[in-house]
Design a protein that fits this description.
The complex is a heterotrimer of chains A (355), B (254) and C (178). Chain A is of the alpha/beta class and 355 residues long. Chain A is built from 12 helices and 15 strands. In chain A, the strands form 3 sheets. Chain A has a 7-stranded mixed beta sheet with strand order 3-2-4-5-7-6-13, sandwiched between helices. Chain B is an alpha/beta fold. Chain B has 10 helices and 7 strands. Classes of the chains: A alpha/beta (355), B alpha/beta (254), C alpha/beta (178). Chains in contact: A-B, A-C. β9 (207-208) of chain A pairs parallel with β2 (63-66) of chain B, so a sheet runs across the interface.
Chain lengths: 355, 254, 178
């Protein structure tokens, strides 16, 4: 068995990035993800890599753009208000078909909001990570181990599809410690013939660009990118099913909320309620087909989020009326308790069946 | 037949989109010639701005990346940190470098990033059709200062070389112009030096080039060259503002 | 649940470290474990607390709002959390810093003068570990030898000279009779 370490989510994620051969980190301090920067600042110089504290989030994401254009595995990390600043760069990175990893350890918003855990950046991550027609891969870890596993996976899928990936965590996952293990070996990044290395006089110049002034040309480029997105949707969806085999009621939750929902499911099962949990691990691509199928088999679903209700939109679109989809959420940095969610399960089970 | 003049290999054969009389073309050539003469064209990665030079990736015959508006020094930082052995330059206008990208410019400079910045100052926003730039002169009429730039209301022009003189990470800052043959020759020497500095690892090097915009200034090309001489140079004095070896000095301090 | 512990005190009392020793002991026993600190401005100056959950099954919710076991190292933490302890739970109160006593009869309260005990034994600042020893004795969440090994792992290399003092403090708390 691989050696286990007791580590904070933020530090484990940083270590995972290093083991995934990421040697270029650009950041700016913000609670609750500052441990990532501190960890990188300590380790990168010893590995011959770059840790650079940028003058702003805007600069940090553009440094990532530069390092990624140069063919390197590059990343940045921030929390909600900082991610808003990065969205300009994320749009350019997506439009330039560059891979990169952006970590969002979410905190309560909008505005300066608070610093306690939140999931209120779901819309931003999955619908509008920047301007224009574009998506980013969005991974939602639910444990410190998944902070590690999904960080490594995010680098690999980002490079496979030449698009940015986001690790959408929250303050709880970032700050908590759990035992965690790391893979012995992570494959090296693939060759990148598109990377800017200098022509060495041996090839035509490579150009990394997102400007297309001719509408038909831009449309063509965007359409091709969306064809790629369809392949991503077909191949990269991840989800977890918990006690769903005989479930008539389903909780849908991701990230930290999902693990609290598991406790609530267990509590409700003790009372005889046949309830289970469906946990999207990729938020984009969203497990639409899986949820649609489930929607035809169960009486109702309840989306639980640390927000006013964002992912629930995607659940409803996927289920498309096959069963009622309810919502329960806390926001502002409040973490719902298992008992609170169990109460909602009881309420859902007691609802009169809607014809 | 003896060859008296050849176009530099540093430029592609693409016809540029620049207006007649615009001096971007001259500055492109000086950059390209410098890279060719230093023998580093195959090692060079350039960063385009947003502004009139946004499509410079079509003209420079080397690897190129397009940066968001103002962010070229940050993109260049990422490139240089990733590939320190390569030659990295940005090519930026006044809006890009001295307005929306001021933070990126000043901080790349404070870090002493070992990159070369070509700063084209023509005192106006060209691409968007002639609005006030951070470097628009007092009293200068633009689309957004139709009564002339009123410094009480719109503030004063930004003097980039003068600001950078106070920044410790700057190895080299010189202001040049391309409105006459002697000035062009000096500009060439400055640009080449700014690249040579990078090869020697000296630190952040910036050349501010006073340039024309006949279209948006509402002048003939010849009038525009005169306006640089008579209006711009008095406000933006030419010359070397900083010339030192930042990184070697750091070693001595340590 | 083997241990469901909320530790609270002032920043600087070693609240987080104390939790980390408990969590590391659980890891040595190959149990499921989570450790969650309070974070943000309250870490700097105000009250600090952390939740430690140890179980045979995966930990669902790492945040503890209604602890089975509470350890309070200062007055404000006592006021804030004593009513949150689950009925039947245990509260460990550093009586050298907290003069109050709880009126609750549905919980077991242990008054341990941890800070004073540490000081008298020339173990300044190790009241937290004295308290952890007392908790280990009453809850049996981990045997002494595992806790000692946890201390060896958690004390950073730069402070290796403090390992013995920490182990001494642990034993002091474990052996304390009210």
């Amino acid at each position: 068995m691989a050696k286990k370490y007791l580590m904070k989510g933020n530090e484990a994620m940083a270590e995972a990035a290093l083991r995934a051969h990421c040697r270029h980190f650009f950041g700016y301090p913000i609670t609750p993800q500052t441990e990532v920067a501190a960890y990188m600042a300590k380790r990168m110089p010893k590995l011959g890599g770059t840790y650079l504290q940028a003058e702003s989030e805007v600069a940090a994401i553009n440094m990532v753009l530069g390092a990624s254009a140069a063919g390197m595995r590059a990343m940045t990390s921030s929390s909600s208000p900082g991610i808003s600043l990065k969205t300009e760069g994320i749009s350019y990175i997506a439009a330039s078909d560059l891979p990169a990893l952006i970590v969002n350890v979410m905190r309560g918003g909008p505005g300066l909001g608070g610093i306690q855990p939140s999931q209120s950046d779901y819309w931003q991550a999955t619908k509008a990570p920047g301007h224009g027609d574009a998506q980013v891969l969005v991974y939602a870890p639910s444990s410190v181990q998944e902070m590690v596993d999904l960080t490594i996976r995010a680098f690999e899928t980002a490079e496979r599809w030449r698009m940015p990936a986001m690790l959408l965590a929250d303050g709880m996952l970032g700050q908590m410690m759990e035992p965690v293990s790391f893979p012995d070996e992570v494959p090296l990044p693939p060759e990148k013939p598109w990377a800017l290395t200098g022509t060495k006089g041996a090839r035509k110049p490579n150009i990394v660009n997102s400007l297309y002034l001719t509408p038909s040309q831009l449309e063509q480029i965007v359409k091709e990118r969306f064809q790629r997105y369809e392949k991503v949707k077909a191949q990269e969806v991840l989800c977890e099913r918990y006690k769903l085999d005989d479930a008539q009621f389903v909780l849908v939750a991701y990230g930290a909320t999902a693990r609290i929902c598991k406790a609530a499911v267990d509590m409700a099962r003790e009372k005889g309620i046949p309830v289970g949990l469906f946990r999207p691990i990729t938020l984009w691509p969203f497990p639409e087909k899986e949820l649609a199928a489930l929607g035809g088999q169960v009486k109702s679903m309840l989306a639980v989020e640390m927000s006013m209700g964002q992912m629930v939109d995607d659940v409803r679109l996927a289920v498309n009326g096959r069963c009622p989809v309810y919502f329960y959420g806390r926001t502002g940095g409040i973490i719902p308790t298992p008992a609170e969610i169990e109460g909602q399960i009881v309420k859902m089970a007691n609802r009169k069946e809607e014809a | 037949m003896a060859v008296l003049f050849q176009k530099t290999k540093g430029l592609t054969d693409r016809e540029t989109h620049y207006c007649p009389g615009c001096t971007h073309g001259i500055i492109h050539r000086l950059v390209a010639e410098s890279l060719e003469e230093l023998g580093v064209l195959g090692e060079t990665i350039g960063v385009c701005p947003v502004g009139c030079a946004v499509m410079a990736y079509d003209y420079f015959n080397c690897d190129m990346v397009e940066a968001p508006h103002g962010r070229a020094p940050a993109v260049a930082t990422g490139l240089k940190r990733a590939r320190p052995e390569n030659v990295i330059f940005t090519y930026q206008g006044d809006g890009d470098l001295a307005a929306i990208g001021t933070a990126e410019t000043v901080h790349a400079a404070t870090r002493g990033e070992n990159i070369t910045v070509i700063f084209v100052n023509n005192a106006i926003y060209g691409m968007t059709g002639g609005q006030m730039a951070p470097t628009t002169l007092p009293g200068q009429v633009t689309q957004t200062t139709p009564y002339g730039r009123n410094t009480d209301y719109s503030g004063f022009p930004v003097k980039v070389c003068e600001i950078l003189r106070e920044v410790d990470g700057v190895a080299y800052a010189e202001r040049v112009a391309v409105n006459s043959v002697p000035h062009i020759r000096k500009a060439k020497a400055a640009i080449k030096k700014a690249f040579q500095n990078q090869l020697e690892g000296k630190g952040f090097s910036l050349v501010e080039v006073l340039s024309t915009c006949p279209t948006n200034w509402g002048m003939t090309p010849v009038e525009a060259l005169g306006w640089v001489e008579n209006k711009m140079i008095p406000y933006y004095p030419l010359g070397v503002y900083v010339d030192r070896d930042v990184h070697h000095r750091k070693e001595e301090e340590a | 649940m083997i241990l469901n512990l909320l530790i609270a005190g002032f920043g600087g009392q070693g609240v987080l470290f104390m939790g980390k020793v408990a969590a590391s002991a659980a890891m040595l026993m190959e149990k499921e474990v989570s450790w969650l600190p309070s974070y943000g401005p309250e870490m700097r100056g105000g009250t600090a607390n952390c939740s430690v959950s140890i179980d045979d099954n995966p930990i669902s919710c790492p945040l503890i709002t209604e602890p089975e076991t509470l350890a309070v190292l200062n007055g404000p933490s006592f006021d804030k959390f004593i009513d949150a302890v689950r009925p039947g739970g245990k509260a460990f109160i550093d009586s050298s810093l907290i003069q109050k006593k709880t009126a609750r009869s549905d919980i077991s309260a242990y008054y341990i003068p941890a800070a004073t005990l540490a000081e008298e034994a020339q173990l300044q600042g190790l009241g937290n570990i004295v308290m952890l020893g007392a908790i280990a004795k009453e809850t049996h969440f981990a045997p002494m030898e595992v806790l000692e090994e946890a201390i060896r792992q958690v004390v950073p290399a730069s402070k290796a000279h403090l390992v013995d003092a920490n182990i001494q403090a642990l034993k002091l708390g474990y052996g304390y009779q009210e």
